[in-house]
């Protein structure tokens, strides 16, 4: 089925279509391009025009370019535009305009991708749902997601992120959501903002794109909730809060964390819903609260969504857990919690709470007592207070129940120095240096959490620990 014909794409972008082609998808990466895709030659770390020939050779339906690369034949299927990024934005706007989908936009300092994935999971069971791939939430990710939206989409979930002031407003205006929500506001990207209030003001900009009659979901109980509320009330037809207090429209009324699950009772209006998530975490429960609020605001079935949340699993690197078998014959293993995609003080506190809720196994390893072990990499983009924010992790309540902490990076050295000696594991300047000692980091029976900002490359420790494993005996 065609997503874009040459004529439609040319009209949407103001470009000049060469050839009578059609495209079944839209791609910006030749490594993942599928036959029939429209290849968009964006200029990022590398110039996409250098890959047009490769894209066409792999079966691209056409290529969107601002110049014709050398060696491309005259009869090649092309869409020639003045500026590729601007044209992608126009294509996204046209993709959004031609659908009757109910659209929800999600942002937040923590939890936006997990919330987006939860929404996609439950809405897909109630209609044709289109959602952002991976963390495609920036100035090219949002228009790309919209440009990929099928005509018959019934629900769309658009994730919107930011690193600097002024990024969210144009993206939410492009997405034109019927429902907009902020998961939470925390100390993230402080390099670009004076304080957390500035971050809240930027996050609140998501409400600026609401369609007439739109609904704003606002997290309650934050110091910055009044900032979010002010913008929401100015832009939305209706504002609903979600949180843990009786006055919240959607409320986490009860929470139980087990080794492998989160069980929550969520009250929405006069209805109470029991939700079971296959991964433990208070933060996941709060994401589920926001999800049920958004489902209700979209006019979908909240009871069905509450049930279907049990099928959701965290995206890779965001709290996924697995068993690594060190000795399959003796059934010796460790539980690995991979939360290495990103980190900030709020998400580390949440991840440590999950670690503490997971019970290690005693009597199976060299040490005889299973331990709760954390490998923590630098938290980046925290601005002038970055040293203090790393030191303060030592005072987190969950940290008292963590047995051993290994640290990666110059910033995490400040946490390592702040820990009592019995909790100090190994500290390494780089993740690679710690990987070389992977076999010394854990013992059978341990539960291991790996968490850090993507730039710390602490995810390499996850890979190193996996390599210690063997297939389970059958």
UniProtKB/TrEMBL annotation:
InterPro entries: Mur-like_cat_sf, Mur_ligase_C, Mur_ligase_C_dom_sf, Mur_ligase_cen, Mur_ligase_N, MurCDEF_CellWall_CoF430Synth, MurE/MurF_N, UDP-N-AcMur_synth. It comes from Maritimibacter harenae. Keywords: ATP-binding, Cell cycle, Cell division, Cell shape, Cell wall biogenesis/degradation, Cytoplasm, Ligase, Nucleotide-binding, Peptidoglycan synthesis. ATP binds at residues 108-114. Residues 330-453 form the Mur ligase C-terminal domain. It is an enzyme of class 6 (ligase). The gene is murF. Belongs to the MurCDEF family. MurF subfamily. One of its GO terms (molecular function) is ATP binding. GO terms for biological process: cell division; cell wall organization; peptidoglycan biosynthetic process; regulation of cell shape. Its main location: cytoplasm. This is UDP-N-acetylmuramoyl-tripeptide--D-alanyl-D-alanine ligase. Residues 24-91 form the Mur ligase N-terminal catalytic domain. It catalyses: D-alanyl-D-alanine + UDP-N-acetyl-alpha-D-muramoyl-L-alanyl-gamma-D-glutamyl-meso-2,6-diaminopimelate + ATP = UDP-N-acetyl-alpha-D-muramoyl-L-alanyl-gamma-D-glutamyl-meso-2,6-diaminopimeloyl-D-alanyl-D-alanine + ADP + phosphate + H(+). One of its GO terms (cellular component) is cytoplasm. Its EC number is 6.3.2.10. Involved in cell wall formation. Catalyzes the final step in the synthesis of UDP-N-acetylmuramoyl-pentapeptide, the precursor of murein. Gene3D superfamilies: Mur ligase, C-terminal domain, Mur-like, catalytic domain, MurE/MurF, N-terminal domain. PANTHER family: UDP-N-ACETYLMURAMOYL-TRIPEPTIDE--D-ALANYL-D-ALANINE LIGASE.
